[in-house]
Design brief:
By secondary structure, the protein is an all-alpha fold. It has 20 helices and no strands. The radius of gyration is 23 Å and the shape is globular.
């Protein structure tokens, strides 16, 4: 009897929890190894962590302005569509569905499985098949919850955000205590220039930015936010500052307890830290870290399903995925679509190769989205925005993102080339299906086998005829 739409259920607290829950996940517990490996020394790795935090703040502020200018949900997709046009937005959607999002979800899922099983197999490493099985079970649980209820997904995100901050505190406090006692030997010769390899720095930034990634999540649920003009900027600024401080202190704690070789040799840095510094919590911290990853999975599914929902509504994705469950008010088809690809990537993927694989595409399109803010300002100078950032913020962010993307071809040409090929493969799809007007027969054939509307209409018609026959038989009886 009521109109079916996504309700405004995301308050300021829930928006803050969504951002904290998306940023503080597997990244801070697995990325220190990648940052250190590609930056070369403790000092340069800390510089990379701070620079990534500052860059994330620039991006978050740019997205906050975009969120007040453009009133639709959808995040990167809708911002690129509204500012740069349908082709780049479809290429983003194509890369996001087939590369970025499943690889990202697979990385977080594998981190969840590894940390959850680590206490049971210590001091040995957990068996890879067991890690992958537990990773998939965790992902399926989050998938089911997001299909069931928006409210419960948001409540879980709020609760897990508290768990994430507690996990960081349990790493920061003992590290700071040891540092205060004078344990500074691991910081000797922190800026060793001989170990710095400039062409590897983009990979260090990818690892660091992965840990901060999530500052853009509020833009995906813009239509479900209460008072978005006020709550988006507030949630973004508070959450990013909180995470920058937490990450810097966490990394200092890691290096206070663990040496460079210990970090590089550890498959799970947080577990190695606890084994060395706080043995009484050896079974607690890995579980807290696993719960942090669980919250990141929840936030990722919650937001990406909205991207598919909006893309369907804009006519660039199958109409089936713009449908909402009548009673539960969840975008059920969009939530379930990622199931097969994430399953495949978890089964065959490795965390660090997946990280480089999806980072190229992600930061390319994020850089284009903030570039779109500059274009949107130029095209619509008359548009009043309740939140506006200085022009150098989006300019700096866009230039750094695109420069890092270009440099990464020298750092990891194989993974980056695969990511680039995935983006470029969307060109023929766009021109054959989205842009070009196909004949009615071809369109119907395509819709029947891939996009489903013709097939679903046919089945619905046949079902209606069957019901009419049954009703007639009942009346006759």
């Amino acid at each position: 009897e009521e109109a079916i739409f996504l309700r405004k259920k995301i308050t300021l607290l829930r928006a803050f929890s969504l951002l904290i829950g998306s940023m503080v996940g597997s990244g801070i517990f697995i990325s220190p190894k990648g940052v250190l490996k590609n930056s070369g020394s403790v000092g340069f790795s800390l510089v990379v962590w701070f620079a990534c935090g500052l860059l994330s703040m620039f991006g978050a502020l740019s997205y906050a302005e975009l969120g007040t200018r453009i009133t639709k949900s959808g995040g990167h997709y809708i911002y690129i569509l509204e500012t740069l046009g349908p082709l780049p937005s479809f290429l983003f959607l194509w890369a996001e569905f087939f590369a970025i999002r499943p690889a990202n979800s697979a990385v977080v899922s594998l981190a969840f499985g590894r940390y959850l099983l680590e206490p049971f197999f210590a001091p040995c490493a957990a068996p890879v098949p067991a890690v992958k099985l537990v990773s998939l079970l965790g992902y399926y649980m989050v998938l089911t919850l997001n299909s069931w209820s928006v409210t419960w997904s948001a409540r879980l995100q709020t609760a897990l955000s508290v768990v994430k901050l507690l996990a960081l505190a349990l790493i920061i406090v003992p590290g700071m205590m040891l540092l205060a006692q004078g344990h500074t030997e691991n910081f000797q010769d922190a800026f060793d220039r001989q170990s710095l390899v400039l062409d590897k720095l983009p990979l260090a930034f990818y690892a660091g930015m992965f840990a901060y990634s999530g500052w853009f999540q509020a833009s995906f649920v813009r239509e479900e936010l209460v008072r978005p003009e006020r709550n988006i900027p507030l949630a973004v600024i508070i959450s990013v500052i909180t995470v920058i401080v937490g990450y810097m202190l966490t990394n200092v704690s890691y290096y206070t307890v663990l040496g460079t070789q210990d970090v590089l040799a550890s498959p799970a840095v947080a577990v190695s830290f606890v084994q060395r510094a706080f043995k009484s919590l050896i079974s607690v911290v890995p579980v807290l870290v696993a719960l942090s990853c669980f919250g990141t999975m929840n936030g990722g599914i919650f937001t990406f399903s909205r991207t598919l929902f909006v893309a369907s509504r804009e006519g660039q994705w199958p109409p089936l995925f713009s449908m909402i469950h009548i009673r539960r008010h969840t975008p059920l088809p969009a939530v379930m679509l990622m199931f097969p690809l994430v399953t495949a990537m978890v089964c065959v993927g490795d965390i660090y190769h997946l990280l480089n694989f999806f980072s190229f595409s992600r930061w390319l399109f994020i850089g284009l989205a903030t570039l779109g803010l500059i274009v949107h300002r130029h095209r619509h100078p008359e548009l009043h925005s309740p939140f506006k950032v200085p022009l150098f913020v989006p300019v700096s962010f866009s230039v750094i993102c695109l420069f890092t993307v270009a440099m990464s071809f020298y750092s990891d040409p194989v993974s980056i080339s695969i990511g680039c090929a995935m983006v470029l493969s969307g060109f023929p799809v766009y021109y054959l299906i989205i842009h070009r007007q196909m004949s009615g027969r071809c369109r119907n054939l395509f819709s029947s086998f891939l996009f489903f509307p013709t097939l679903s209409d046919y089945l619905t018609h046949k079902l209606q005829l069957l019901l009419e026959v049954v009703q007639q038989e009942i009346k006759t009886y």
